[in-house]
Write a structure and sequence with these properties.
The chain contains 9 helices and no strands. The longest helix has 28 residues. The protein has 182 residues and is an all-alpha fold.
């Protein structure tokens, strides 16, 4: 009985994963339109199904991230913030939580809520996300006019990157701060 129960549980989980995968694939395929822009109503419908049938799974949360992207692309920042907050509050895994937090901070910055965005980024970040988090903090601090703190954040971001990776946009931001162009 235990063996059959165990096998049934694994079969159920596998079926759930496959079902979520199919819905997520359909969600991604909404971008396969002649103009490359997803059908917002279809995106919302598929994401709703993902959340209702497979809520809390990584697929459902990836769906929320996709819905947030579509909302940003269509100028619906409040909708995007709601989707991202849902993932950030109860992430399926730490990586999804960090991605959602950073994207939510960017949306909040676009809504002129840089202070709120900075609070969202308080605390420690996984080493893999340290550079992007610190660069985002620097951008938010520049938006708030706190140039010295922004410079320190950009320096932390640069230190977290390899020399080759640190020569792009981050170096330009540091140079702009040094010139006073921020």
């Amino acid at each position: 009985v235990i063996v059959f129960g165990w096998q049934a549980w694994h079969k159920y989980q596998n079926n759930q994963s496959q079902g979520a995968s199919v819905l997520y694939q359909q969600l991604l395929e909404t971008t396969l339109t002649p103009d490359g822009k997803p059908d917002a109503a279809r995106v919302t419908d598929l994401a709703g199904k993902l959340n209702s049938e497979f809520g809390g799974t990584a697929y459902a949360q990836y769906g929320n991230l996709f819905v947030a992207k579509v909302a940003v692309d269509t100028g619906k920042l409040d909708d995007a913030a709601a989707q991202l907050k849902a993932v950030a509050d109860k992430p399926a895994n730490p990586t999804l939580g960090e991605v959602a937090r950073q994207r939510l901070a960017q949306v909040l910055a676009a809504q002129n809520k840089a202070d709120e965005a900075l609070k969202l980024l308080d605390g420690d970040a996984d080493k893999a996300f340290l550079a992007t988090r610190e660069e985002l903090k620097g951008d938010l601090l520049v938006q708030l006019g706190r140039v010295d703190e922004a410079h320190a954040a950009y320096q932390k971001a640069k230190a977290a990157l390899s020399d080759e990776a640190a020569v792009g946009g981050l170096q330009i931001k540091l140079d702009d701060l040094a010139k006073g162009d921020a």
